[in-house]
Structures are given as structure tokens and as C-alpha cells.
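User: Continuing from earlier, I have the next pair ready.

Assistant: Great, send them over.

User: Here they are, in order.

Assistant: Folding the first of the pair now:
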Amino acid sequence: MSSPVLDGLLTFRGKHAKTDQGGNPVWGDSVEIDLPRILSAEESAELRRKVAETAKRSSGQRCFYPLTGRVVSLCAKTYTGISFAAEGAGARFYRCTGNAPKDLSQKSCGCSRIDADALEGHVWQKVMEIASNSQKLQELAAEWIGTTDGNKSALTGRIADLDQQIAGMHASLTAVIVATAKQSKSADAIEAATAALNEELQQLQNLRAEAAEWLMELEESDRYAEDLRALASMASKSFPDMTPQQQAAILSMLELEVTITGPVPDGRRGGVPCTVRAWYAATGLDVPAASLSDEDWSKVASLLLKGRMGTVRRSVDAIFYKARTGNSWPDVIKETGATRQASKHFNAWTSDGTWDRVNAALADVERIPLPDPELLPPMTIEGRVDPSAMLYPEGRSRTGCR
């Protein structure tokens, strides 16, 4: 993409040449040398346009990963977003950083990739379920700080009792100081006589300050509840339509962390899309609900090459089974008794239209919708709900509840 290649022009001391304080070139004026053109002007313009389009497609939301650094793997490392253009549009995943250690002497952790769309959708759905449910939010808040009328009443009584004890302690200290001063004018004697009382007074004052702080938090519970209701209203209206970048901002405010607690389902550990399921999804066809009966097999046997010892029939059943489960070919072969020819048969039959004819011949068999594959491992999702941070980002803020 250089000027000599695209424009047939080589420039010495060009726009990046060293200049003095006055902007004059230190080593002389620019020198342009014409070269034989490799591409015509029209071809160069077309190449520039194509490259610009590719760059634009590669920098959109498709390659933004709001959960990067927020997902903790089984090996205690974090996941980061990664795309695989060679695997087709939408090939977005999260990969454990332990799989590509910076130190080449370290072994790869072996943690499996996780489908990005499925993981982001699942986590954001959980966030919306909590954030848009004011009752659930208030239950979390009450569990965290214990905002109940009984607590407020008990604290108010406790503070009043401590005030009486502190007042009594002050009176006792005054009496001791007066009595000691009459007997001895020594400051050391007065300090010794009041040491125990002063220590007890300090303890009472600390208890009073702690109780007052708790009461102040509880007295804010009404405003906190209003914030929670406002947050729930905002979440139900705006959260569903947020872009990945906006979601990332909310997740940052929530200090959200996802911890993987089990393995990624066997069928999708490698993160490679199932080609059989992709074919049924593209055609909009449902999947046969079970292996073919002898009667059903008779409808399609003539459309297929004959295989030794039922190999072709087992391949057909294996393909249907893979569509229903999304499992990897090695697992499908193990579970159905098919051979490695099954995947080759599927590729050949879809290429020459045979698989379309097989499905058309089986139009009357019982079918089920293409099931959603199990893409996600078990996980826990934790965060901190602080409504004031989201409602008043530049104003008041208080500690939230987890």
C-alpha cells in the first residue's frame, strides 16, 4: 500500500523529513522520482477502496468484547475476546489467556474457547433480570445492610442509652477530679485516678459513633429505595437496546465478574461451528426426531450410494443425530456407531444437492425444531449494585451491595 507501488512515485525527504524550528527542511527539499507503474491509476484507486472497506468491517461492534478481562477460567486466568475470520461471519469467541502464555516456557492451560455471542447474551440477560427488578434489588440491599424498621428503632434506643451512659461517665470523671484535687494537687495523681474512667468513656464514645453511623446509613434507605426503583425503570427501558460498548460501561460500574466453574460442553469445546446444524439453520428445515425406521430408509436408499454393512445408513442417522445435539464428529461416531465416512458423506451430499433430496423425501417423518446447542459451561456471576453510580454518575455515590 506504499506510494511507489500504488502511484509509481518514490519521495525522498517527504512529509516526515526533519525540519528546523522554522519548519524548513534540514537536509534539503523533497525529491520525487518517477517509477514504472505496477498498477494503473484506476486499479490503485480500487485497491485503496477495497482495503478501506475491509478495515471498516474489521473495526465494528462485531469485534468488540465487553466481557474481556471479566471472565475467570478454571485455571484462574482471564478470558479475552478473539475472532476467527476463517471460520466465517460471527466466529467470535473468548479464549483463556493461559492458552497463549507470554512466557514460551510455560505450557498452555488447555481451557476451551467459549462462544462469545452465547456468553455475552447469557450474562447480559442476568444483569437485566436483576437490574430491572426493583423488588429483587431491594431484597439484595436489605440483605446487605439490614434496612428494617426494627433495626432503626433498636439503634435509636441504643444511641439514647449510650448518651445517658456518656453523660453519667462525664459526671463521674468530674467528681473524681474534684476529690483527687482536694487530696493532692499533683497532675499525675489526677491522671492516675481518672485513667480507667477515661478509657471506659472512650469505649462508650466509640460505640456511640458506630451506632450513629449505622443509623445514618439506615436513614438513607428510603432514598436508596427510590434509587433502586429508578434504576429498575431505567434498566427495563434502556438495557435491552444497549450497544456492546454501553454494556461494557455498565459492567464496569457493576464491577461484574464471571467465574467459570465447570468445563465447556464437549460438543463445542473447540469453538468451531457445527456445519450440520449450520446447514439446517440456513435452510430453515426441522430435524428428524429419531433414527430412520426401515420404512423411512426405503424412501431415501435409492438416492444414495450403497455402502458396505450399512455404512451409508449409519452415516445418515449420524448426521441427523449431530444436528440434534451439535456434538463433535468424534463423539457422534462413538455414540452412533457410524464411521469416519459420515462427515465425508455429509460434505459430498451437501455439495451435489443429494442432502436436499434426502430431506425432501423424508418430508413426512416426525421432525423437531433445531434445538439450541449447549454452548456455555456452568458459571457464577457476581457484581456490585450501586444505583447512584448509574443514575448520578457525576453526583452522589454510596457503597453498593453485592
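And the other member of the pair:
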Amino acid sequence: MVILLKVLLVIASLGLIVTVLLQKGKSAGLSGAISGGAEHLFGKTKARGMDLVLARITVVLAAIFIVLTVIVAYVVKT
């Protein structure tokens, strides 16, 4: 049981790392502000949609990671 939970925890943590690394940075300085304005003017809904999906996956994986961490800590302690 403990081994299964630890394997799930490793999988969740690797998934969380990958999704965070796939996301674009939110602040890129002055060049980010200029290109961000251009994207807003010309519309870039496809990239925004992918960023939204990655953000949602990150939130779900973070919640799974936290829950699994608490469960593993409880199981190992007892």
C-alpha cells in the first residue's frame, strides 16, 4: 500500500513539474508588455486556450500532490 502511494506521488510530482515547465512566463519585462499588447490587439485565442488548459491541469495536479503527500505522511507515521 505504501509503495503504491509513493509511486502515485512520484507520478503526480513529475506531471506537476512538466506542466509548470510547459507554461509560458507571465512577466517578461518591457518586451512582454509590448508583445502582450500586440497579442491583445490581433487576438491570439489559441495560445490563450492552451495556457488555460495547462493552468487547470496544474491546479488539479497540485491538489492531487498535496492530498497524496498528506496521505503518505499519515500512513508512514502509523
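Worth noting for the second one:
The mean pLDDT is 83. The first helix runs from residue 2 to 22.
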